[in-house]
Each structure stands twice: as C-alpha cells, then as structure tokens.
Amino acid sequence: MMKILKGLYAFCFVKLDQEADCQSKLPNEMFLVIYRDIAAVVSSVPKSSWQPTRKNIQKHQKIISQLQELFEILPLRFGTVFKDSNEVKKIIEINYQDMQRLLKKIRCRVELGLRVFWNHEAFLEEVGSRRIEKLKTEYKVRKKDRYMIAVEAGKIVEAKVLQKRDEYIRTIFKPLSVLADDSVLNQVAGEKMVFNGAFLVKKQSVVDFDKAVCEIMNKHKNKFFFKYSGPWPPYNFVTVSW
Amino acid sequence: MFLVDDILLAPAKALMWIFKEIHKQVIEEYYSEEAIYKELNRLQYMLDIGEISEDKYNRLENTLIKRLQEIEEANESLEEEEWDE
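Predict the joint structure of the above. Result:
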C-alpha cells in the first residue's frame, strides 16, 4: 500500500506572464506546478504545518498577501493539499475556463471583512421580551419540568435573533454591498454575531468603502462592536471546486 | 428461556441500548473532523466577544488540534488495514 504522508500544500493559483521570472520571485521552499498560463504555487511541507491553528492560518494569509504583491492570484483557503503535481495539473485543466473568469473578476480588487456583534446589554435589550422575563421567573420558582421552560425560552430567543439579524442585514449589510462589486454572508459563529460579511472592492474604492463602514460604526457604536479587517486576497470570491 | 429472559430484562435492555446509543453519539462527535472545525470557529467567536482570554483560547485550541491529530492517525491506520486485507 502507498500511504500519502506528504502532499503538496497549495497557497494560490497565479496567472503566468513570464514563467521563468515568476519562479525566481518565489521563496525557496515554494515552486510552481504549471498548466498552460496558470500555475499553482505549492510547497512540499510536513503534515504538522497543515494543522488549522491560528498561527498556521496567519502564516498562510501572510504568504498569500506577499504573493499578491507580485502576481495576479486566485487565493486558496488554508489547508488545501493536493496529492501530487499531476493532480494539480488536472485540476487546473478541468477548471481552466472558470479560473480565467475568476482572475478577471478579482483583478485589481481586494476583500474586506466585516463582522458585527451585539454587545451584551444591547443583546439582552433587543432579544429579550416580556415572555422571556416571565419564563425566567417561572424557571427559578419551578422544581419540576424546568427543561421544557428552558427549551421554550431558547426557541423565543432564536426566533428573535433571526428576525433582528434580517433587519440589520437589510439596513447595514445591503447598503455596503451596493458599494462593492460582490459580497457574501458567511455563517455566523454564535448567537451574539449579527452577521459575518465579506466584500469584494476595487482597490481604488477602498477609501470610500472605509468611510462608509466608519459611518455605520459610529451610528451603531452603542449597540454593536465591529471587527473590520483587510484588505485580504479575495478568498471568499474564489469558488473553484474539485 | 430466551423469551422469558427478554421479557424480564426488557426495561434494563432498553436502558442499556440508550446508553450505548449515547456513547456511540459521543464517540462519533469526538472523532468528527467537522465538529472540531466548528468548535475552532466557535473558539474564535468566543475570543472575539471577550468570553475567553488569549491563554484559554490557546489551551483549548491545542486540545482540539490534538484530537484532530488522533483522528488523522486513526484514519491512516484504518487505510493501512484496508490495504493490508
């Protein structure tokens, strides 16, 4: 049996203009796997470097940001590993047209991330209700069947959170989306997260986008706290699958 | 005799079945890569909203990564066994 102990860790795909030149610009441990005018920037690294720790993810992002300074790229998410060069070539071959289209779509653009969270007081105020207060009192007093009360309260909170999220997606996320070329809503990671958005913005429009985000932050500073990040390579807008 | 045993032990058997199912679910959850990625995501969220400190984040992340390694090792030995058969 042949066991895959090592593989090719892929950082991104790049558009090749001058192949020889591209290879010389890469750090030593990285190399190109080429199919026509697209190549994958890969590295043959031990499996321990693929573990999804925050440190490894930051390292991955840093390398891609550096590569973005040098080439036109399609960034890959952390943890993309291929078996060997042949597999990489095959994937480029199959997705060649899509990759060309995506390269065009994200040319001269960056990704900006905006995660919005309720602060504790605002969360209680917006999501709480008279019914919840009544259930809380009942929960404290009752000795039996407390589980059912907790379930009912949970359902009410969940419905209210969903309703409020929809409202803020309409009033915060959507107006920002209009300023971007594309936008996506990623999954929320917890109940106090209002939304987790990513925006594809032209490099020359980043300043205007920043201003719009700052205005929103000021308007809602008593209710929410914001994690605004970027510019990133547009990970969320590269949808090549295999 | 089997029938009598079945009847007499029915409640105990049902309870044992429930325990076994719970145990199975817990093990499946513990060894699910998807569940670990979700937990890592949740950890980042808790750090973001200030519910855990950097230190606690690092400790918990370490535990999850170890679990992930255990799964990988288990999968590798399983692959090996399949090839050996």
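Chain A has seven helices and nine strands.
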